[in-house]
Amino acid sequence: MRLGSHLDQPVDSNSIHEVIKYIPSPLPGKYYDPDTTEPVIFGLQTLEELLSWNEANPFNVAAVPLVPREPPLDGCKHRTLVSHDMMGGYLDDRFIQGTYAESPYAFYHWQYIDIFNYFTHNMVTIPPAMWTNAAHKHGVLVLGTFITEWEDGSVACETFLKDEESYRAVADKLVQICYFYGFDGWLINIENTLSEIAVQNTPLFLRYLTDQMHQKVSGSLVLWYDSVTENGRLQWQNELNPSNRVFFSACDGFFTNYNWTEQSLESMRDYSEVQDRQADIYVGVDVFARGKVVGGMFDTKKALEVIRKYNFSAALFAPGWVYEALDRAEFRKNQDKFWALLSGYLDVHQLSSPLPFLQKKRSWFNLTAQEIQPLYYYEQDGQGWLRSRGCPEDAWNGGSSLMLDGLIPAVCASPVCAKCVSAHSLPPSPTVTSLNTQVLYLLGSSPSMYAQLELQECSVLTELCINIQRKGEAVDTPFICRVGEIMLLDVASLQIPTEQVQDLRIYDVVWLRGAGPSMEPVSSCLHLNATLQWKYPTKLIRHFKVYWRRLRGPDPRIPPGQLVLVGRAYSNCYRVTELVVPEPPSLIELVIEPVIRKGFLVPESQWGRRSLSYTEDTTQ
C-alpha cells in the first residue's frame, strides 16, 4: 500500500511533524523505483524527452571531481578508452545508492585506462553517478552516449539536423545534462542514413557541441563514432579516410568501427588529416570478437599490439565479456587474466592526489564506495613470480584486501619489491604513511601488523612499494601478503575538523505498509521512505553514516532506542527507503555522522540531527 504525505517543516526548527495521508506519491517514476522509492537512473529514449529535459535527478550528480593525473590526457602519446556495453545497461548500477548483489560486475583496473564510456542503446545514455565517481577518483574521464539508429533514428536526425536552431537546441541540452550530472563529454553515434541537408549540418552540430562543451565543462571530450559517411550513407569505414574526415575535424576524436586490418592502420598513419592527431583516433576493438576482427576475448592483446605499432589510441568495446560470457564464479580471476594479458600495451597513469584506498563491501554493489585502487599485475622472473590481486575473502576494512602472493626462489637473497600504488604527489613535510599488513609464509606467518612510517626528504612520491624478504634457510619460499589499508597523511592536517553538519532537511516522504524483517503479516509494519539533505564540505569526508532511533512511541513504557545504522551516503543527500518505524503516534530522530578521510572520529556535537513526529490522518 502506498501512502503519500504532506510535510510540515519549519526551516528554523529541529523538530518537524508529518501527517500520514492517503494520497498518490509525488515522486516522478523515472527517478525513483516504483516499489521502494529508491533513487534510480535511466537514459532518455526520444528526442522529445531530450528537448523537454529540465529536471535532473539530484541523486545522480557526481560527488567526486576529476582528480589530476600524470601525464595529463593531452600529454599521452596514445590513450585507452573502455566502452562499457553490458546487457542493455542500467543493471545493478541503476540503483544510485547501491544495492545488494551477490556477484555484480565491477571494474577496478582503472590505472590502465584514460576514458570510460557508458554505452546503451537509449538515445541519450546518462552515466550512473557511481561510475563517474569511481572513474574520477582515478583520473579517468567519463563519457555518456548520444545514439540514433534504425528508422526511428533517421526520423530524429531529420528533425534535429534540419537547421541551425534545431541542432543547437539538441547540443545545448546535451551540454546541460553533462554539466549538471558532472561527467566529461559524449560519444556521438549516428547509425542511420542522413539526407543531404542533415549530413551537411552534422559537422556543424558536432563543432557547436564541442565548442560549447569546452566552454562549460573543463577538459571535456566529444568523440565521433565511425558510421555514416559525408554523403549520408551508413557505411562503416573501419578507418579514418576522406569519406569521414569532415566529422573528425569537427570534434575531439574518432572511434573507428571494429573490422579494421593492419593495412587500415598503416593507411591512416600516412593520411595527412591524421598528422599531429594520432592520439585522437581510437581504434575500436570488440572484445566479443564479433565479425572479422583482429583479436578479441583473451586474444585482445593481438589487436593492441597492432594498434600500438602504429601509435594509435585504443577503444575496447565491452570488456565485460569476462563477466557476460564466462563463469561468473571465476569473474575476478578472468578479469585479472584479461587485463594482465593487455598490460604490456597499456600505460599506467599516476594520480596527483592523496592515496588512501579501500574497496567496496562484499555483497553490496556501489562503485562510489570504491577508493583509489592499487596496482594489479603479474610478474615472473626466472623461478620466482609475484602477483597482485584483490582478495574479498579476508578483508581488513571494506570488501577486499590487496593480496600480494608469489614465490621467492632459493637463489634470490634480495627482497621482493611489490608495487602497490602509482602516484605523482608532492608530499609535504612531515608526511606519515600508515600501513596494515599480514604476511603468510609456507612454514609460518607473521601477526597482523599496523605500522606508521615517516617519509624523509621525499620531494615527489611516484610509487608505494612493500619489500618482502625471506629470513632463514635459502629454499624456495611461497608467500602471501595481505594489505588492508595504505593511507598517506600530511601531519599538519591531522586535526579534527570544526565544521558541523548543518541544515538537515527531510522531504519527499512516502509511507509504505508491508512485511517487516521477520516477514510479519503484510499489514503489520509501517515503512518510512524519505529524502535527507544537509550541508557539509564533501572534500573532507570518506562518507557519511546515516542513523535513526526511536525517541517516543505509542507505548510510553518503552524507553528511547539506540542509534541504528541505516546506510552510507557519499554526497550531501540520501534516500531512506523501507525503514521499519514504530506505529503512530511516534517521534524518531534521524542523524548524520561525517566520516572524514583523515580517520578521526567527529564529535557527536558536530553531527546533524532532526527529529520527526508523525500521526495518522484523522480527517479521513
From TrEMBL:
Pfam families: Glyco_hydro_85, Ig_ENGASE1_C
Signal peptide start and end residues: none
EC number of this enzyme: 3.2.1.96
Subcellular location: Cytoplasm, Cytosol
Family matches, as InterPro entries: ENGase (IPR032979), ENGase_C (IPR057882), TIM_ENGase (IPR005201)
Keywords, alphabetical: Cytoplasm, Glycosidase, Hydrolase
One example GO MF annotation: mannosyl-glycoprotein endo-beta-N-acetylglucosaminidase activity
Cellular component terms (Gene Ontology): cytosol
Gene3D superfamilies per record: Galactose-binding domain-like, Glycosidases
CDD domains in the cross-refs: GH85_ENGase (cd06547)
Catalyzed reactions: an N(4)-(oligosaccharide-(1->3)-[oligosaccharide-(1->6)]-beta-D-Man-(1->4)-beta-D-GlcNAc-(1->4)-alpha-D-GlcNAc)-L-asparaginyl-[protein] + H2O = an oligosaccharide-(1->3)-[oligosaccharide-(1->6)]-beta-D-Man-(1->4)-D-GlcNAc + N(4)-(N-acetyl-beta-D-glucosaminyl)-L-asparaginyl-[protein]
Domain Cytosolic endo-beta-N-acetylglucosaminidase TIM barrel: 90-340
Cytosolic endo-beta-N-acetylglucosaminidase C-terminal domain mapped to chain residues: 494-615
Heme in keyword set: no
Function: Endoglycosidase that releases N-glycans from glycoproteins by cleaving the beta-1,4-glycosidic bond in the N,N'-diacetylchitobiose core. Involved in the processing of free oligosaccharides in the cytosol.
Family designation: Belongs to the glycosyl hydrolase 85 family.
Protein name (database record): Cytosolic endo-beta-N-acetylglucosaminidase
Organism this protein belongs to: Takifugu rubripes (Japanese pufferfish)
Gene of this entry: engase
